[in-house]
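Board notes (copied after class):
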Amino acid sequence: MKQITLVTGAGRGIGFAIAEKFAKAEHELILLVQEKNQINFLKKELGKISESKKIYFHGNLRDVKFLSMLDKKVKKVNNLINNAAQANTDYFTNVSDSQINNLIEVNLIAPFKLSQIFAKKMIKNKIKGCIVNITSQLGHMAAYNRSLYCMTKFGLEGLSKAMAMDLAKHGIRSNTVAPTKTIVNQIERKKTVKRLNIIRNKIPLKKFSTTKQIAEIVYFLTTESSSSITGTSIVSDGGWTAGK
């Protein structure tokens, strides 16, 4: 039987690259997007790759009713990829209560709830599934003007490890993929040349991660080759966190 993989934030960037990789592997896909027009984009692009079944949901991960609907409509998955996230670049003392609540809901509570929902289904269906959370290099180290973002990504790293401990007895694995700066479109490459050069010079390998590289790592973590890997993080940062 074909594997069923659910990806959040599948409409662009890393999320789309992940959806594309799993489509090429002939997985049945359940793709969550924030913007409705992203569904047409996905249908067009992924239709070129695979004829495997694809189901699309448009909604807000902060909405409890949306999560409840997913629980009712999606009967089971083999792999859950929690990719959707929001960023924040405000100085620590300028971060507002609404920003705190928003980022925690999207970056932490939504992955927690979705993992809980689909881990229960894996256990019920005796599926030795995989949960992969997309975190960040900033879930392993701090940076200026990233206090709120770091808090959520460090939290997601901790959650992933704790889930790995709880779910191991069911054969369910939980890991994270933590990219450094990843170029998600060419517009960014052209419009922020100076900023990107500053970041690149901090990376020992002097290059950024690509969306396709991150997707390949995520896919690897759902395969038999990684069947003994759980509770850990694969950091794709060009050596940044190794030291100075």
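Comment from the instructor: The chain is about 45% helix and 15% strand. The longest strand covers residues 173-179.
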